[in-house]
Amino acid sequence: MMCLLCFLLHAENLLVLTVATKQTEGFRRFRRSAQFFNYKIQVLGLDEDWKGGDDKKPAGGGQKVRLLKSALKQHADKEDLIILFTESYDVLFASGPTELLKKFKQAKSKVVFSAENYIYPDRKLEAKYPTVRDGKRFLGSGGFIGYAPNLKKLVEEWKGKDDDSDQLFYTKIFLDPEKRVCVVKLFLWCMLPQNYCSDIIAGKRLVGCQLSVFLGVFMYLTNRHQFGHILSLENYQTSHLHNDLWQIFSNPEDWREKYIHENYTAALKGKLVEMPCPDVYWFPIFTDTACDELVEEMEHYGKWSTGDNTDSRIQGGYENVPTIDIHMNQIGFEREWYKFLLDYIAPITEKLYPGYYTKTQFELAFVVRYKPDEQPSLMPHHDASTFTINIALNRVGIDYEGGGCRFLRYNCSIRAPRKGWTLMHPGRLTHYHEGLPTTKGTRYIAVSFIDP
Ligand SMILES: *[C@@H]1O[C@H](CO)[C@@H](O)[C@H](O)[C@H]1NC(C)=O
Ligand SMILES: *[C@@H]1O[C@H](CO)[C@@H](O)[C@H](O)[C@H]1NC(C)=O
């Protein structure tokens, strides 16, 4: 009780400042979430022209510093006032002031900035940043929190133009040991775990924002605490088992982080790409989470085909080489899958098959289930595709035994598929292949026939 009370008192001392020159839908959403949690907010710059950078000069943001500097004059002597400065167009609150203040206090800094994975706008500064063991390393100016007098000191030196970079300004302060020591502690800001705020508002999934990483006065940088991310809730689907899978359009960065293999980037540069059989490429694409959620989603849906030749789901209604499978469109995942192919498979294809530019159009994309007592294997066949991707969704030797794929022309087999890795091979003519028998357990693969 005592403690609850003291947090409530503290909450009185929190003010949220944000810059919004226009009342966009995103801004209104931000404001609704702030009202829901009883944040006091003050909006700066409404109806001003936005001069802080645009597509041609994206760095920008200086206008926000100017507005903040001017707003802070009236708060400078309020020693106990804690100010959260945040963007608003793509931010929502997922928890209340109490939680936010608690995290801020835990950071034990006067000022804490949000952290990011990428350095921006000046990559040359990278070497000056302290290294971190895990988590995000670089300063982001999208959200920071601190005591009013410290924030005032922080922006006091701003003499930039409206379209100068605010992030660069804060970064330089942070990277200057002297200034950091006497003025600032920077912390990082982040979002809640995705399940944290589920169902808070009318059963809708809510976004969370929270402080997660901070850069301290004494060069202390910790970001061991990851609390989640900011999500856009527009178009958030709630009808699936793993709704995040559907977020590739609305939250592409989060989607990538959650579902794309950490070594995909290396594969894109040609590293880690193997060729186990002629013209069959093999590279990491999915995280374990992506594999697990896709399989679970399919099992949850549950309407596996019977493996008959008659198949009303396809054009003509007849399948030569039937598998026991579920098509992506049956779970309403076709658009998302297409986006995934376009964003992650097409760039690699263009690297590996130079001169070939795919639009990754596909007739068929599905998850296949192999089981000894159901359908253990697949007879030799050509795929109806220019090229095929075949992603292993679980682990040989653990989830199943046997399995793999053999290309008959080359008498070449891949007997130890790697979970999260995809095979990519030409579909017709040369790459006649068969699915080798699964002898125990259940094996899942995600297959797409891409054409052209
Ligand atoms: C990524 O590649 C590195 C170097 O080959 C390896 O050590 C690491 O385990 C790989 N990550 C995953 C998730 O497989
Ligand atoms: C195919 O390769 C296997 C070993 O991988 C070998 O035992 C077999 O004789 C080969 N078959 C032909 C037709 O070359």
From TrEMBL:
It comes from the Eukaryota. Its cofactor is L-ascorbate; Fe(2+). PROSITE patterns: FE2OG_OXY (PS51471), LYS_HYDROXYLASE (PS01325). Gene3D superfamilies: q2cbj1_9rhob like domain. Keywords: Dioxygenase, Endoplasmic reticulum, Glycoprotein, Iron, Membrane, Metal-binding, Oxidoreductase, Signal, Vitamin C. The keyword Oxidoreductase applies. Its EC number is 1.14.11.4. GO terms for cellular component: rough endoplasmic reticulum membrane. Residues 361-452 form the Fe2OG dioxygenase domain. It is a peripheral membrane protein. It is an enzyme of class 1 (oxidoreductase). One of its GO terms (molecular function) is L-ascorbic acid binding. It catalyses: L-lysyl-[collagen] + 2-oxoglutarate + O2 = (5R)-5-hydroxy-L-lysyl-[collagen] + succinate + CO2. Residues 1-26 form the signal peptide. InterPro entries: Collagen_mod_GT25, GT_PLOD, IPNS-like_FE2OG_OXY, Oxoglu/Fe-dep_dioxygenase_dom, Pro_4_hyd_alph, Procol_lys_dOase. The keyword Glycoprotein applies. It is found in: Rough endoplasmic reticulum membrane. Its main location: endoplasmic reticulum. This is Procollagen-lysine,2-oxoglutarate 5-dioxygenase 1.
